[in-house]
Structures are given as C-alpha cells and as structure tokens.
Specification:
Number of strands of chain A: 0
Order of helices and strands of chain B: EEEHEEHEHHHHHEHEHEEHHHEE
Largest interface: A-B, 18 and 27 residues
Strand content of chain B: 15-25%
Shape of chain A: elongated
Oligomer: heterodimer
Largest sheet of chain A: none
Chain lengths: 273, 312
C-alpha cells in the first residue's frame, strides 16, 4: 500500500540504513573479517589491520559491531511483535465487546501504563539475570498499552460501520469479524506504532545493557558500550571503540522511526471515509 | 397457511432520558414466497421492526411480544442460536450499500464469505459459486468484478453485490431495509428486478421496508402502512392502491407527484408523547371528538385491516 514515489528522500534513506543493518544481521560472517570471539593484541588502534581496532581482550571491534546488529534487531522486532499482538488482542476485545470486558481490560491497561517501565525492568533484571529472550518477553509484556488504547478507540469507531453490522447479520462469529473485518481496517494505525515500539525496545535494551543489567555475554551494541565504558575505552579516549556502537544504535533507531513516520503519513490517504 | 414469519404484538420501547415508544403492538405475518411491504414516513418505526427481527437493537431497547420465525421465537434465542440462523435462514439488505461492504476486501471475497464462514465449502469452490451468482445478476464478465473493491463500483452495483452476498445461501426470508434509498431511478429498477427474481426463483419471502410507494406497489403482494409506531392499514397491494381507506393512506397517495403533490398538513407526533386517541387525529380532516379521546383498533372491513372509526 506504500507508494514509493510519493515518499521523499527521508523514506529512502531510512530503508537504505535499515537495509544495511538487516544485511549485517543476516550475514555477519560474510561481512565481518574475523569471528567476534577471536583474540588479537588488545587495545589496538584502527590503523593496525583491524578496521576499528581491538578491545581490552583483543576482539576485533568491527566484527563485534557487525554481529551485534543481529542481537539488537532481534530484541527490537521480537519484542515489538509481542507488544503488537498483546496490544491488538486487548484493544480489539475491549473495543468490540465493550461493557465489562472493556472496563476490565482498560483498567488493566491503565495499571500497566502507570508502572514505570525502566525501573521495573531494572528490578526484574537484578533478580532474573535476563538473557536475550527473557529481555524480549519483559520489554514486550510491559509496553503494549499505547497500542491497546489506539486499537480500542479505532475498533469502537469501525465496529459501528455498516459492514460490521452486515457481517453480524450474515451470522459471522465475533472472532471472524474481529480478524477479517476489523483488523484490515485498523492495521494502518498499528504499523507506525509497531515501528516505534521496535525503536523503543532497542533503546531500552541498549540502556539496560549499558547499565550492566542485560546479559553481558549477549554481545549487543549496548554491551559494547558498557564494556568500552568500564574497561577503559572512554578513559583512553578510544573513540573507535565507543563511538561506532553508539552511532549504530542511533542510526538504526532513526531509520526505523523514519519508516514508521512514512507509514503514518502514507496511510492518511487510505482512511475510510 | 405456511407462515414463515409471524410477528405478534411487537412493541419496542427505548429507555433513554425519555421513554420512547418506537413501535406499538404491531402484528403481521408473511407466508412462504410472499412479499410484504412496510411503508410509512421517516421515524414511523419501520426500520426498528427490521432491527428487532434481526436482534440488532441496542441494549437500552425493550422489546415485547413475539417474533415467530419458522416456529422459533427469535426474541428468546441465545446469541449463538441467532448466529446460526442469521445469514443462512434470515438475511437483511441494508439501505446504504457502500457502507455495508468492507472497503478493504474485494467484491468476490465478500460475496463468497458466507460459504466460507458457515463452513459449507472451501474458498475456491465458494468463489466459483459467487461468480455464478454475480453472472445471474447480470454482471456478464463476473471475473472482472470479483477483483474490484467497493470504492471502484457505483452505488447501484454495490447494492446488487450486497443482495448477492446476503442471499447467496438462499435464506427463506429476506428483509430489505430501504434497498432503493438514494439510488437514481434506473438503479432502482435494477435492484427491484433483482429482488423480484429472488422471490420468483427461490420462493423466498420478502419483508420490504420502504418509503417509496412505487417500489412497494411493484414488488409487494400485501402492504402495511405504518404511522407513529402502529400499523394503520394493511391490505392486498392492488386493493390498497385502488381504494385506500385510512385518511393517512389517502393523504400519502395524494402526496405522490402523479396525484398532484398535495402534502398532508402538520407533522407526525413525537413518539415520546403520542396523542391519547387516534394518533393521526391532529392532522386528520375528518376527525371528531371521539377520535381525540378513544384509540381505534385495527379492524377488518371491506378487505382491509384499518385503524379508523370512520372506516368501519
């Protein structure tokens, strides 16, 4: 439904950047010159045959950077998928059935909404020592409220439309109506939200890892920043160690957000009159 | 007598800030293969009856009486039992076709949907049946239309798609709620032909709700005129148009363009506080004191059921 020619330079650069990161995530061994676990001379500078030098234990930083893309993207997209599924299910149920279901689910949403996310995740991380999938689960389970609210309000609007009424009159079940009549009409508000949730999850992961609360062996960009900070990268002013992961996080989040905005702008044209 | 639908003493009240009597003690029956037209002006309660039969009224509506459909009382069925009946045995065609179709699905998919949902056959076979249904409706190259979206088709085409979709399972009773509203005269023709074909080919019963008297005359076997939530006259269509008895019916016919465009003076009463006697009395030219005090019953005289003291 996206008309590429109507999107500007911003859209193309977003797609291009994200494309690079996705290629890095899918084929790390083809791009990275070394295995990220392979050890060389520590604290090497970029000139020494390692594109971005080596870190404190002698790993090639560029190779680490490339394989970190996979971790960051998996966390971002997997938790955004989880977020979207939970948000869609709760928003649709509340909006379609209304009444008691609506009261209960929106009450739950309000409760989840007032929980401070990052402190909660820090507490959970301290107790659970999260690995990759636990992090995905935690990030996904605590950030669906805004999708649920948007989906509910859209569902309230769409459920009153003639085609939903006539679907009811043809004896279609509630589940069928929600999935094949309502979702296709509200998906345009969900896609930008999905992209933003991806970006938010990546930032949360990076901040947690930077604080040392993620899984230190995960090898994400946040981990790299954290090690650069704690093992002397900043003190020795080794910019080739701490700058690239920070730039990658920023560029990746920006590209995803830009694509999300493009979806949002594009779909203005296809709304139901 | 082979009654498909029998409505007796149906009353619908809306509990809002004020109590609204939308429908008051309405009774009628439809036989197999019969077309009953329910006519009346806007707000007289005819659409409310259709919604009551389909159980589509909001929760603040109180429905009294009995709606027997093929020896089951629709008012006492659970939501699940209703779902099984809707679409298969009982179908409704809504007044605004462009809104009754989902804008994001193709016509073909929507016409075939009832088969897929009621698990009668697979999608592929269903779309073949949908294509044949569209061909019967006069869309010669049905393949082209199957892939189109509602926004690419005209209102009249969409209305025929809606009729095709809601009647594809051959339900014994179809309710058409203002099927010709907002269509120009050539499209009205198409929709009428469609409904006529449906009734003749499948022996379907049709409850036609309309305020277009020409459409009612053309399609219906019997006609019931509603005024302020009540049926005030019911008769065979030909007998009614030749000799309307109730002053309101006569007024309605006189207000048609071909009969001189004479309007009925006044406006219809508020359903919140209807007049105590005959509801038409404040606008009636023949009314006397008795009409203002006593409420007339619907009685049988001269081949008509009529609710008027002067006609008995």
């Amino acid at each position: 439904m996206i008309h590429f020619e109507r999107q500007g330079l911003l859209w193309y650069s977003g797609i291009f950047l994200l494309g690079i990161f996705i290629v890095m995530a899918i084929f790390p061994s083809q791009i990275a010159p070394y295995d990220p676990g392979e050890r060389f001379m520590p604290y090497e500078e970029p000139e020494s045959g390692h594109l971005l030098g080596t870190n404190d234990i002698g790993n090639d930083i560029f190779s680490e950077l490339v394989s970190g893309a996979r971790i960051s993207l998996i966390i971002g997209f997997a938790s955004a998928i989880l977020t979207t599924i939970i948000g869609l299910a709760i928003g649709l149920t509340a909006g379609y059935f209304r009444g008691l279901a609506d009261e209960v689910l929106m009450g739950l949403t309000d409760v989840v909404l007032i929980i401070p996310k990052i402190p909660l995740i820090i507490v959970l991380a301290a107790f659970l020592r999260p690995g990759l999938w636990l992090l995905v689960l935690v990030l996904g389970v605590f950030s669906w409220e805004s999708i649920a609210r948007v989906v509910r309000s859209k569902t309230l609007q769409v459920r009153e439309m003639g085609f939903v009424k006539s679907a009811e009159c043809m004896g279609f079940g509630s589940l069928h109506i929600m999935i094949s009549e309502i979702i296709p009409n509200i998906i345009y508000v969900v896609t930008p939200k999905f992209m933003l949730a991806t970006a938010a999850a990546m930032i949360s992961e990076a901040s947690l890892s930077f604080l040392g609360l993620g899984d230190p062996s995960m090898g994400s960009w946040g981990n790299m920043l954290s090690f650069a900070f704690s093992r002397g990268g900043f003190v020795r002013d080794m910019w080739w160690w701490y700058l690239p992961p920070g730039l990658c996080i920023t560029l990746c989040v920006i590209s995803i957000t830009v694509i999300g905005f493009a979806f949002e702008g594009e779909d203005e044209g296809v709304r139901i009159e | 007598m082979n009654m498909v639908l029998e409505v007796s003493n149906l009353s619908v009240l809306f509990h809002g800030s004020e109590l609204t009597h939308a429908v008051h003690e309405v009774s009628f029956g439809i036989e197999k293969g019969e077309v009953l037209a329910l006519v009346g002006e806007t707000g007289c309660g005819k659409s409310v009856i259709a919604h009551a039969i389909m159980s589509l009224l909001p929760s603040e509506a109180e429905v009294r009486g009995e709606i027997m459909f093929r020896s089951r009382d629709l008012l006492r069925l659970s939501e699940k039992e209703l779902s099984a009946i809707r679409g298969r045995e009982l179908a409704i065609v809504f007044q605004n076709p462009s809104l009754a179709l989902n804008p994001v699905h193709t016509i073909g998919r929507q016409v075939a949907e009832p088969f897929a949902v009621h698990r009668i056959m697979g999608r592929k076979e269903a779309s073949g049946r949908a294509a044949r249904a569209l061909e019967r409706m006069g869309f010669s190259s049905s393949e082209d239309y199957m892939g189109m979206y509602p926004s690419q088709c005209s209102g009249g085409m969409n209305q025929r798609f809606v009729i095709a979709a809601s009647t594809i399972l051959n339900p014994p009773l179809v309710i058409a709620d203002e099927p010709t509203k907002g269509l120009d005269s050539s499209l009205v023709d198409g929709v009428c032909n469609e409904l006529q074909r449906l009734v003749h080919e499948n022996n379907t019963s049709l409850l036609l709700i309309t305020h277009d008297l020409a459409v009612a005359r053309r399609l219906s076997d019997r006609i019931a005129v509603m005024y302020s939530g009540e049926i005030i006259e019911m008769a065979d269509t030909e007998a009614f148009f030749e000799n309307p008895l109730h002053p309101y019916s006569r007024g309605l016919l006189m207000s048609l363009p071909e009969n001189g465009f004479v309007p009925i003076p006044g406006t219809s009463p508020s359903p919140v506080s209807p007049p105590p006697g005959c509801r038409f009395q404040p606008r009636c030219t023949e009314g006397n004191r008795e009409c203002a005090e006593r409420h007339p019953d619907l009685l049988f005289t001269r081949d008509h059921y009529v609710r008027c003291f002067f006609c008995h």
